[in-house]
Each structure stands twice: as structure tokens, then as C-alpha cells.
Fold each of these.
Amino acid sequence: MKIAVLGGGITGLTAAYHLSKKGHQVTLIEKEKVLGGLAVGFKAKGWDWHLERAYHHLFANDYDIINFAKEIGFNKIFFRTPVTSSLYEEPRGYKILPLDTPIDLLRFPYLGLIDKLRAGAILAFLKVSPFLGFYERVTSEDFLKISMGKNVWNRLWQTLFRGKFGDYAGIILASFIWARINKRTKKLGYIEGGFQEFIDHLIEKLKGEKVTIMTDHEIMDIKKRREGFTISGKVYDKVISTLPTPVMVRLTKNVFSKKYLEKFSKLKYLHAVTLIIETDKPILNETYWLNICSDKIPLMLLAQHTNFIDIKHYGGRNIAYTGWYVKGDDKKLRMDKKQILEMVMPYARKISKNKFKVIDYHLFKGAFAQPIFDREFAKNRPGFKTPIKNFYVANLDMTYPYDRGTNYAVKLGREVSEMIR
Ligand SMILES: Cc1cc2nc3c(=O)[nH]c(=O)nc-3n(C[C@H](O)[C@H](O)[C@H](O)COP(=O)(O)OP(=O)(O)OC[C@H]3O[C@@H](n4cnc5c(N)ncnc54)[C@H](O)[C@@H]3O)c2cc1C
């Protein structure tokens, strides 16, 4: 069977691997020069390890990727427990506080004891609760305000939701917060050499299985034939699209009915913008992941990667990420890296206790990187099967209620391949 896998991110790579193992003739088609999609890495001069364009780590319970890595003989995933904290505004300056454990919550200075106990009880409940239909009938904001109280919403959650989802913060379903709490582990994982090592290992496996890999090849159109599909002049029996849904919609106007495609027009997305800053001294001491819980700092987070992974792998340079999820009309999508750095620096200097110098910096943008999990999303998101026989979808919208991640990309790649004999 000739199968085209559209998109060379981790979902596409994994699907191609499983399908080729089953003996199919697989062609993987990717528009970028490099494979890996949103998890792709790069190596600056003097670095031994790759670094992801967007901050990446694993959770200790990301079993799909952990097990798949074992299956393909990849043993470079490791776990550690870096410091994660949140930054809060004070009348004069800012305070950085850990908020990972029940003890941290009890010590949290901005809430009364009753609020803390309430918040702790709901967090404990979410951790053990199975997914309930109820979580799709209420927004995260309403759920958290009602269950934990308004003070807790205002102090703990509001800026985090606004930081991640912007104008959409108020419509995110409670299923998102359930998945977030349920899945999170204090132990975080990384990959020796960076996530790119895993991607490169997979690529080698695909080559071994004789998968045809086409990079730098943007798919512009897909045509349905009586039997099969035509893509870039070649005919395939089956197609698996791992493309972002809006891209798939644009390319399949001649494949699917208007009605089928129309439901996807109700889905909303944000694009990712990440800035990586290389400095002589760290911006943050000790903390790897810093949530910014202040309206006065227009950054969603600051992640000092080299407080998680040894600085020696990056030529002795301290590496920090900051980033945003933005709408299509956001000016950050049109700003160049110097403009973004200039915007970030006053805040990075304010947050940092160190007088650091910027040595280099890198800017990356990822399209349709964050689906908005609202009611429309829960109703209209794509599934593996489509109304057209032999055309399948496996993309990051389908990790719902879990936030997209490489673990789910591996899972989707495997699951879609299981649908094809
Ligand atoms: C800011 C950010 C932080 C993240 N943090 C983490 C994390 O900490 N841990 C974690 O596990 N995951 C994280 N993720 C998520 C993770 O990167 C993704 O879930 C995963 O890489 C998705 O893989 P995918 O193959 O499904 O999609 P993608 O990687 O988006 O792959 C789709 C591919 O399709 C290609 N494509 C698009 N249009 C065309 C076309 N017309 N023709 C051909 N090819 C096309 C794209 O170039 C892309 O390579 C993060 C993502 C972002 C954006």
C-alpha cells in the first residue's frame, strides 16, 4: 500500500515508522528543510547539544514516548527535579516563590488559610479525579472561582490563564485545568543531546525502513481520485495528515465536503513566539521555570534552561527562554529578533538579581501551536477518521483534553497507524 504521511513533526515521523514496519510503502512530506516540526532543535556555534526552538521537557508519566523510545533502542531520556517557581508583584518590586508542593501552598503569603486549604483540597481532587463530562460544561475560570474561591482565582490563576490564552482565557474549558493538574509531575525529563537526538534517531530508523523522505516540500494541494489521492503529482492509496487543521482545511477543499470542513472553522488557535537569550551570567538563579504572575510584566514565562540542563553542553553560555502565544494579528509575529529582545530586556533586568550581558539571541515562531480548548473545540475537533475513506487525520488538536506534547504526538502516530492494515 502506498501511503503519504503529510508533515514531518513527531506525529508524522512516528506514524511513518509504524506503517513502514508493517510493510507499507511510505512517503513522508515536510515543508521545512528539517524534520521535527514544533519540537525541532538547533545548534549554535560552540554547543555540543541541540536546543529546542521552543522550551521542551517531559513529564515522568509520559509513558508513550518513554516506551516508544525503548522500542526503537533510544535510551537517552533522563529525569531530574529542577526548581519551578512563580513571580509575584510586591508593592516594591517582585517576589519569586515556589508553588509546587502542599507545603509551598501553605507558606504562600498572599492567601488566607481557608483559601489555601480549599485550593489544596481541589488540587488534590483534580489529581486523582478521572475525566468527568462535567469538565466540558464549565469554563476553567468558573470552575476555579466556584471551587477554590475568587481570591484564589485572582492570586493563583488569573494571570497564568491570561498569559497563556490572552483574550481567550475566559472560555477555556475546565477539562484543560483537569488535564494540567492530573498530568503534571514534579520530575521533568529531557533528552541527552536535546529532543533533536530523538528526532534524528527516528529519521535513521525511517531510512532503514526505506521510507521516502521529502523535505523542503510544501504541499499546495491534495486531489481525490476515484481510487486514492494525488499529492504533488504522485498517487497514494492512503493519506495521513498530521498538518495543523487550518492548513489541512486549505489543502483539502477538493477532497472534503464544505460541511465537513466548515466545522473546523469554529476552532481557534494561537501561534507561538519564543525568544532564546544566551547570556554570560544566568538571568535566574536556581529556578528553571518561572511563571510570571504579574500584569506589569508582559512575558508568559522565563525558563532558565541551564538551571535544568548543564551549561557545559552550550559552550558555557547561560540559556533562557521567554515566549508568548499570540493571535494572527499580533505585532510580535511581525517584529524581528532585535525588536523582541529590546522589548524583553527591561523586564529580564528587573526580574534578575544578576548584572548579565547578552551574548546572542534567537527568535522562533510556530504556527497554530496552541489550540484553544473551548466548547466549540470540544464539539468540532478532528478525529482519526474522516468522511473520505483512506484519508486519516492525526494532529495536535487530538491530544485534547491534554495540552499538546511530544508524548501525545508519539501516541497519535502509533494509533493512526493501527487503523491501517
Ligand atoms: C511553545 C511550545 C512549547 C512546547 N513545550 C513542550 C514540552 O515541554 N514538552 C512536549 O513534549 N511538547 C511540547 N510542545 C509540543 C510539541 O512540540 C508538539 O506537541 C509536537 O511536536 C507536535 O508534533 P506534531 O507532529 O503533531 O505537529 P508539528 O510538529 O506541528 O508537525 C506538523 C508538521 O507539518 C508541517 N507542515 C505544515 N504545513 C505543511 C505543508 N503545507 N506541507 C508540508 N508540511 C507541512 C510543519 O512544518 C510541521 O513539521 C511545545 C510546543 C510549543 C509550541
Note: The first helix runs from residue 10 to 21.
Amino acid sequence: MAQSHQDHIVVIGAGAAGLMAARELARAGRRVTIVEARDRCGGRIFPLPAAEFGYRADGGAEFVHGEAPVTRGLLQEARLSLLPLEGAQWNVEDGKLSREASQGMHEAKLYAALKDLKDNLTVAEFLRRDFAGPDYDRLRHSIERMVEGYDAADPQRASILALRDEWMDGRGHTQARIAGGYGALVEFLIAECRGHGVAFYLGSAVSAIEAAKQRVVVCCANSTAYDCDRAILTVPLPLLNEIVLPPSERAKVAAAKHIGFGNVIKILLRFETRWWIDRQRDLADLTFILSDARIPVWWTQHPAEHPVLTGWFGGPKTHGLAGLDEQELIEAGLASLAGIFGLDANQLRQTLVAARAINWAQDPFARGAYSYATPETRAAQAALVSSAGAAVLFSGEALYRGRDMGTVEAALTSGLETARTLLVADAGP
Ligand SMILES: Cc1cc2nc3c(=O)[nH]c(=O)nc-3n(C[C@H](O)[C@H](O)[C@H](O)COP(=O)(O)OP(=O)(O)OC[C@H]3O[C@@H](n4cnc5c(N)ncnc54)[C@H](O)[C@@H]3O)c2cc1C
């Protein structure tokens, strides 16, 4: 490989994308510095102390979705194992918990309509066009609930073609957890980076990037600055607008408004016992509960026996809870559980051992949970990642052009691709 003069790279952000890019570049002999705003690495991978929940619970990413080849490759390297999800999903319908979801009456028609799709509409446009009228009320509700809950997306903006790929591609439906949580994977990447000489600067929020005469200066709010040849910017989409960029990069960032970015509120409640099983023996293998409660989705750690229930509320309606502080969100979670199980919220509160609630929109270095595709997203991503020779390269989960945007796999893959793009460009013709 040709020796590069561009040997010092500053990676901004120590999430999955930044760590992966840094490792790849450092392994190829580049001098790499990571500058991270938080006082920890991992970003939207946010492990909570084992003492709090009895295991290393995840306040951010928790599941490995689908094939996730880059994640699985890293897990193998790190000798970490994957624990496939087992158990049963329950639904609350007409106020009752039931094991089976009522069969969608229009499922066949839905799948046929999805298969025939030619235009990239939004989900809302698709439903208005093909499933208007009261006969389809239930179908529309369940699709909107899925789009908002799972993809944290706004049906008025989310691309139906992207969702079709997600729903109809049979490869994607397995889910698993990492033994030791996502934190174990982050620790592995940090150790790898350090082993290859990467320098870490935590607690350093980047406020501006200047580029002139083949040099780049990364400036932090704490008045430190890093001189380098190139910068890789991996901050979450909403943060791109808070960093002063050179004019050419600023123009590219304008395209980012066409990439959706949704929010999630995640609530973890540790109880003295798994009271749901004591109440109802057939809930012994409970994994997910889907309901219309204020905090609508809940899951257990089954097959692990931790007495922890995790609540999940995703999508634009989370704005409605923006005024609640952590304690009020925990109360909302307890009230939702009490409603689902027909219990008294006060009794539940008395058996609570530990609780956390994280509204990711209020996290200053995330400002939301993860991205989703709108009909214009692929063009926007192409504009952002276009030039390998640029002074600033953009990377992160939102720039991943595969099927599962918004995942750790997306972030790892994007980081890897950005590093490789840079290495290939430096190697020259
Ligand atoms: C609640 C929740 C649940 C999730 N669940 C899953 C899941 O189960 N499975 C899954 O695969 N994915 C999940 N995700 C998505 C996944 O966490 C993300 O897609 C992935 O971690 C993003 O990695 P990233 O490196 O692109 O961004 P980040 O992890 O956000 O990393 C970017 C880094 O940039 C830093 N930064 C921000 N601003 C600045 C600045 N000005 N200067 C310096 N540094 C800055 C941030 O602090 C952060 O560390 C979830 C996300 C959330 C929030």
C-alpha cells in the first residue's frame, strides 16, 4: 500500500461507528485520535451498572437483529456469545392479556399490496391509498403501532418500501442478546483501539471543524483543539446542526433533513420477584407484551430469571411525555403495568428495587434514538457520504444504506466502510 501523507485522523464520537472506524484505521497504521463529548464510550449503547438491575442492563441498544454479520464477526473475535430470544409474545386486546394476536383479517391483502408496490410512498400515504375506510381501522392501527413502536418512526414520513424490505425479508426476524450486554462489545472495541495506539479524549464536545490548506482542525467547547489530516464525524443526526462545519460540508448536512430520526423512551423496572409469573403461571415464558397503554410495550429477560420488566415507547407520540422527568416516567411505567395486569400501582411500587427511565430525546448527545428511512433518504445518504477525498467524512448508523438502519449493526458497518473508503482513497490509483 502506498504510504500516505494523511496519517492523523480524528474520529468524533466513540459510539459503535466511531470505535469501529478507529480500530480499522489504527490497524492499518494510521494515527487515530477519538474525541468524545460524554465521559464514557458507547454512545447509544448505554450499559447500566450490574449492581442496579442484577445484570448489565442496557439503557440503549439491547438486541441483535437478524443476520448482523459485522456484529457477529466481532462477537466471535471477542469470544462473546449470543443468546437467542425465546418465549411467547402476549397482546392486550379489549383489556385482556392473550397469548395469540387476533389474526389480521386483511393480512393477505396487505402482503399483496406490499408486493405490488412500485412507488415509494410514505406509510401514511400507502394506508390512505390502499386501506382507507372503517373496515381497515384495526389494520391501520396495528401498522402504525409497529412503525412508531419498533422503528420509532413517524408514519407520515417513513418510507413504505423500506418497511416492506424489513417486514417481508424472511432473513431479518431472529433476535438475540449478547451475553454481558452490548457493553461487553464496546469494551472489546475500546481494548482493541487502545492496543493499536488510539488516543481517547472523553468529555470533549466538538463545537467546530475548520479546514484549510489540506489541514483540519477539530475544535472543542472546552477550548482544546486537534490538528489532523481528516476528520470522521459520527455524531447522531440531530447533533450535526450543532457543529460549525466548513461550507462544503455544511451544504451536505442540509440533506440530512431527509433522513428520519425518531425517539424512544426506555424504562427499566427491577422488582423483588417476577410477580407476573406468581399471578399467572402461563406467563412463565413471557417475552414481549404489546398493549395500548401509555407505555405500550414491555419485555422480560426470559429465559434469564431477572425480575426486571423493560418498558418501551417509541415514535412521535413520545413528544407528549416530553414534560415528564425521570421519576414521572417511572410512575407512568408503573401505571401502565398496573393497567395491563389489573393491579394497584401502589402495590407494584412497594416491590420496586431499582428503576431507570431514559427519554433519549433529552439526551444532549443523542437528541433521539435512531434513524429511519423516508422516501428521500437514499439520495440524502448518497449526498452525505459521497466524496472519499473530503476533509470531513460522515459516518454512523443513519448513513448505513442496508436494510436495518437504526441499529448497532448499521453503525458498525458504516464505521468500517468509512474507514475503508478513506484507506482506499489514501492508497491512490
Ligand atoms: C433506546 C434505544 C434502544 C436501541 N435498541 C437497539 C437494539 O436493540 N438493537 C440495535 O441494533 N440498535 C438499537 N438501538 C440503536 C443503536 O443504539 C444505534 O443505532 C447505534 O448505537 C448508533 O451508533 P453510532 O456510533 O452511529 O452513534 P452513537 O452511539 O450515538 O455515537 C455517537 C457518539 O458521538 C458523541 N457525540 C455527540 N455529539 C458530540 C460532539 N459534539 N462532540 C463529540 N462527540 C459527540 C456521542 O456522545 C456518541 O458517543 C437503540 C437505540 C436506542 C436509543
Note: Residues 1-5 have pLDDT under 50 and may be disordered.
Amino acid sequence: MSTKQVNRADIIFSPYSVAPYEILRLSMQKTKPEVIEEITESGLRGRGGAGFLTGLKWKFFANTDGDEKYIICNADEGEPGTFKDRKLLVEVPRKVISGMAIAAYACNATKGVIYLRAEYNNLIPALKKELDIFDEHAKKFGLKFKIEIFSGAGAYVCGEETALIESMEGQRGEPRNKPPFPIQNGYLGKPTLVNNVETFATASMVCRYGASTYKTYGTSDQRGSKLFSISGDSPKEGVFELELGMKISDFVEEFGDGDTKAVQVGGVAGFCIPRKQFETAIVGEGNTTGGATMIFNSTRSMYNVLHNYLDFFAEESCGQCTPCRVGTQQLLKGIEAVKSGTKPVEYLDDLIKLSKTMQITSKCGLGQSVTNSFTSIVQNFKEEMIY
Ligand SMILES: Cc1cc2nc3c(=O)[nH]c(=O)nc-3n(C[C@H](O)[C@H](O)[C@H](O)COP(=O)(O)O)c2cc1C
Ligand code: SF4
């Protein structure tokens, strides 16, 4: 192994050799389809967790008609273990804002919203100053795009794009049925593009460096670099920008404490990878990760880890659909019963089946993703689940 596999990238946090609003100005000298083509060509995937191709999303959005089209920057950042969007908003807000503005130009949107989780309200004064500076530039460039800040109400599920829109409209933060997707029918019934904070910042950098340069980082499926929020048993906790494509073994060598037994990739909605699978890539083909990466060493009880996750899911389930509302509670009670000896170890298999049923039948990504961490922990650390 060589730590060279964990390449520190310097794209998103690259120094301002070209100021973000200069990138906007230069982008506006291109045609709108050219800007979208640049993003498409870069292969950038959304950094909010689902990994949808950003260029494709922008193209769909550009093709929707409407006198009022919205762009929402999803800064809800509720996934336990992630704190990268906060760093972007604090350290490079102009890259985020210019990414939103480039999307607005390319897709003909006139209104923007930064949906900020309530815990980040302390960032509002500084962001407002940044938005005033942006307004001056937008005016100078002849771009009609006004961004406001909306403060969320602190629920994890409000990070889901349709629940986020519901909460902006004053309703309970509950996911909508899809279709229609926000791009067709979003905030106030208008076409709405929702992208993650990091997606906008990266899009701006793609326009800065060009898709051909950006593509030289990462793998054919996972292009570029991304931010990883690293926490747990690591001497180097924090936010790091890393080139995509690294193996977990290399990641652990760089960030672990020498005693790593598992790595949770993609936050609680992601997978818990045991040591025997460390040769796999940290971001699998065809998907991406929000970048919440928690490292556990041998002193950690994986039962406690799982209990903690399930407690969180049961608490955060919006309760709208039965598989998730009841399933999260049953999984929690189920592992407690096995741990106390009230139920036999075989009961864990029934619980795995339940979690897979939740994956198929739940309405949104919260209930659908519980099986990822549940199954990976129960199967790989069964001996820690029993009495
Ligand atoms: C329960 C749940 C929570 C989510 N939380 C966030 C979040 O905090 N931030 C975010 O950008 N996306 C979050 N998402 C994903 C969004 O629904 C959406 O896919 C994303 O904002 C799209 O942006 P992207 O294409 O740039 O990734 C969440 C999804 C689910 C199901
Ligand atoms: S899966 Fe859970 S969070 Fe999502 S709509 Fe159903 S109950 Fe609500």
C-alpha cells in the first residue's frame, strides 16, 4: 500500500487565483448550453448523498418552462458525522454562491434560496453580507438572480428535497410522493433545482478549471475530488478534500489510529465496512457518498453503534409511512431483545428481512436506507449483537 492512493486534492479549496465572481462573469460569456455541457462533461455527481449526475439535472431543469424558477442550495446537513457544508459556507461562501448563480444563468432561474439548518443560524449575518456583495456583482453582470436565506427547523428528514420544500412552504417537513420531481413541480409549484452546498461549490470550480482538467481526478465513474468529514477514532479528524477512487485500506492507513476495525461510509444512511472488506473503494461504482466517514477502533461496541443509529432513525422518522415509522422502532426493540437474550440470535435474520422490506416499501430515502447500516453491522459484527 502506499498513502499516495489517498491524494489530497485542492480543487474545491484551491486558493482564489480566479475570484468566484470572475468565474461567473466568464461563464456568462459562454452560451447556456455550453455551461451545462461543461458540467455534464465533468461527470460531477451531486454531493448530497444520492449521487445524481449534476449536468443531467441542470439540463432537465433548463428545459422546464416557467416565469419563476427556483434554485435551492441544500444546507440542511443533518446526516450525523457530516460537517463539510458548514466549512464551505464559512470559508468559501462565494464559491457556493457563484455555483448557484452559474446554474441560474444556465437554466434561466431568477430566485435562489439557501436552506440553512437551524443549528447554523449563527452563519446568517456573514452570509447576508456575502449576498449583498453578490447582488452588486449580479447587477454589474446583468444577471437577474436574487438569493435569500431560509432557516430550517432542525429535522433530519427536512434535508430530503421534497420535505425541505414542504417546510419552506410552512407545512410539516414530510417528503412528497415523487413524481412529480421538484424540477417539474417544486417550491410553490414552480420548477425547482435542489443541489447540495458542495455540488454548487464544485460546479463553480469545474467552470474555473474546465471539465477536461476536473476529469483527470478520480475514476471513470467517480470523477474529481470531494470533501470527507472524518470523525471517530482518528488522530486527524476534520474535513479533507480527497481524490475519489481511494481504497478504504489506504484511507484507514492515512486517517485511522492503527487499530481500526470498521469504517462507516456515507453516514448513518451508508454502510459499515469491516476490516476484511477494506480493499474495496470508499465510494462504490454508480453511487456516491455525502462524505460522512466515521472510524471505529477495537474499543468500540458495534452493538452500541447500531443502537445509536436506530435510536436516531426512530426519532427522526417523520411517521408518514408505516414501514419506516414502525420498522425503525421494531429494529431497535429487536436488537435489544437479542442482546438481552429474550430472543435467539436467529431473530437477527428476521430483522434483516424487515429492514429489506423497509427498503422496498418506505416512501423516502430515510426508511429506504436503514438497511444499509443495519445489515452491514449485524452481518459483520454478529458476535457483538448477542447476549
Ligand atoms: C433523509 C434524507 C436527508 C437528506 N439530507 C440531505 C442534506 O442534509 N443535504 C443534502 O444536500 N441532501 C440531503 N438529502 C438528499 C436530497 O434529497 C437531495 O437528493 C440533494 O439535496 C440533491 O442535491 P445533489 O444532487 O447536489 O446531491 C437527504 C435525503 C434524505 C432521504
Ligand atoms: S420513509 Fe420515514 S421519513 Fe420517509 S416518509 Fe416514510 S416515515 Fe417519513
Note: The radius of gyration is 21 Å.
Amino acid sequence: MKNLRDWIAWAEGKKVAIGHFNISDSEGFKAVVEASKNLGVPVIIGVSEGEREFIGLEEAVALVKTARANNLPIFINADHTYSVEKAKMAIDAGVDSIVIDAASKPFEENVKMTKEVVKYAKTKGPTLVEGELGFIGQSSKVLDAIPKGVSKTDPKDAEEFVHQTGVDLFAPSVGNIHGMVKTGEPKLDIEKIRKIREAVRVPLVLHGASGNTDEEILAAIDAGIRIIHINTELRLAYKEGVKEGLKSGEVAPYKFLAEGVEEMKKVVLNKLKLFNAK
Ligand SMILES: [Zn+2]
């Protein structure tokens, strides 16, 4: 059976992107798995530090492994991990990939931390390591304006970073923002994506893609994006669905939460259709 590295190579060959969806409970998991099954495409379940604390890291890994035992191409990524220690914990728990996020730190420190995680992952097996360079904010809310300190990644810096760290995947800052800015700004910088992809020669990951238009997303995939993260849109859909579910006066959680699952599933299906359009 194909592992995550194989699926990323598959996506590279087909010029499509694999959807990465953050979850914090079994409802989110159900929505993502059902959408993946419906379309027969691979997906990555993302758990941030906060999310994995809520659902339980080992529990989340177990859910994904159960799905895989049933021949479903479902993978788990330890999203935005801010310390080497937590990164090692996630690798030990058996995640398929990990994001070591030292993007808010100076270049040298980012390299040092990322390198240490890459080295550790290599001793443990097939966990892929993703590094980040260029700050894109840390929110997953709807924002009034572009957050302060956001800066685009320079292709030369990116090349140096990937060369020094040996990461398997690279997440640049190319006009993408964590959270959603009400005005729909900024736009994705497609030329920058193309240049960074040429410079780093590893697959690129796009974070903070909630709120970008379909046209921008398709152009970004064409330019070399192979994994796309969606979180904020999913959270909004969940909340709206559960609000509706609660209106019925139902007390059984699986009944009033079901609308939340349905709403999330719609978002995931739409995104997966777009990401796998080729
Ligand atoms: Zn992210």
C-alpha cells in the first residue's frame, strides 16, 4: 500500500494537490473520511498542537491507522509544531508527517530546529518533515486586515533553507495567510510559487488557503503546490451546522452534531474536487 511519500509523488505526476484538513474531534474526522471515500482521493488529516491536545495525539493516529487498515488513503500530519520536543513526541506517536514551525524565529535558529527534527525523523522511519520560511500569521479566524509581520519568502533563502535542513516538504509564504481576511486579500503570488519550486526542488505546501479563489488555487497547483491546508472554512461550516442542529431541540449528540458533519463534508468535497480537478 502507498505511503504518504508515494501519494505526494502521485500528485506530482498528475499535477494535482492533496487536501489537508484540520480536525479536533471525531466529527471532523468523519466528515473528511467520508468525503475522501466519496471521491476516491487521498487526504491528510491535520492536527495542530491545540487540536491534538483536545482529540489526543495517539487517539488521532489510531483513527487514521484504522482507516488505513481498511485500505483508505488517509494520512495524519502533526501541523504547526513549535518545539523540537513536541515534534519528537509526534514522530514517536507515528504521524505520517510533521510541520516544524520556527518561521517566526531568525533564519539560523529556524534551520537549527528544523534540522534537528529531520535528523530525529530519519532515525524513526517514514515520517516526512515539513519546514516553513516566511511568516503568514497564526490565526484561524476571520480577520479585518492582513496580520502584522507577514512577509513573502525569497526563493534564494528558500533554496538555502531546504538545502541546509534536508526537509521533505516546504511551506512558503506566497500571499497566503492563516485565517481569512474579509477583503479576500492578499492574492497568491503564482510567479513566486513557481520560482520557489524551481529553487527548492521539493514539493510545496500551501497553508492558509481558506478564502483564496478557485482560480488562484488552480494556478498555485499548476505552479507546484502539492498539499493544500484548509482549516478556517471548515471551522465556520462546523459551527453553522451545529447551530442548525441545535435548533431542533435534539439532545442526542450524534443527531445535533450530524448537521455539523454534513456542512464540513460539503466544504471538504468542494475543495477535494478543486484540488483534484486534473
Ligand atoms: Zn498552517
Note: DSSP finds twelve helices and ten strands in the chain.
